[in-house]
Specification:
mainly alpha; single chain; elongated; two-stranded antiparallel ribbon; three-stranded mixed beta sheet; 2 domains
Length: about 210
């Protein structure tokens, strides 16, 4: 839906044509593979819903159709979605916004950020960050500056990717417990493949 909104963001093409403009292309990879778990489930459900829509009288597929969105979430989450929806309404009516914020994560972000030393500068910054945080065990103005400098050295890993990387020793344990700071092992990142989820002989070739 976000991607489709960028097809004719300013409406200029629509105005020129006198009809809805822009074009959204949904493609499938040659091997038809997708990342596993939640991503795969959501993709498969989307494919089923699109096929159902195309075989019905209403062949046009509109990504912002409220009925289509409602059908998607109802079928993806099942009975749990209805229960969550009712709970959301109850808390909203009570104006219990703090509990509402705690119980509902409207935009799920389940990835974990891993700091990766991909060159000498980033490795030195990561080393300095790790040393300072172990000593202070809290964020300081100096540390915040280092974190800002390391924004380009962050790789977000999904749950299954993170678990695999931890098990393989690619991602090291948290710098400090409950800090949410993870650092990739030395040589876990290569110029050709980026951050690996498991170490191979190529990771040790200079």
């Amino acid at each position: 839906m976000q991607a489709a909104g960028r097809a004719d963001r300013e409406g200029k093409l629509t105005a020129t044509l006198g009809r809805p403009g822009g074009r959204v292309v949904v493609f499938r990879s040659p091997d038809d593979k997708t990342p596993p778990n939640e991503y795969k489930e959501a993709t498969e459900l989307t494919r089923v819903l699109c096929n159902e829509r195309k075989s019905s009288e209403e062949q046009s597929i509109q990504v912002d159709d409220p009925r289509a969105l409602s059908n998607y979430f109802r079928r993806y989450y099942g009975q749990e979605a209805q229960q969550l929806g009712q709970r959301f309404i109850e808390l909203r009516e009570l104006k219990n916004f703090r509990t509402l914020a705690e119980e509902f994560e409207m935009i799920s972000n389940r990835t974990k950020d891993v700091y990766v030393g991909h060159d000498e500068d980033s490795r030195q910054l990561i080393g300095a960050m790790e040393k300072q945080f172990r000593e202070k065990k809290h964020f300081t103005p100096e540390l915040r500056k280092v974190f800002q400098q390391l924004q380009r050295s962050i790789v977000g890993l999904g749950p299954w990717e993170f678990d695999k990387a931890i098990a393989a020793g690619v991602v090291l344990p948290e710098v400090v417990k409950d800090s949410g700071i993870w650092i990739a092992a030395d040589k876990a990142c290569t110029e050709r493949f980026g951050l690996a989820l498991e170490m191979t002989p190529e990771n040790f070739v200079l």
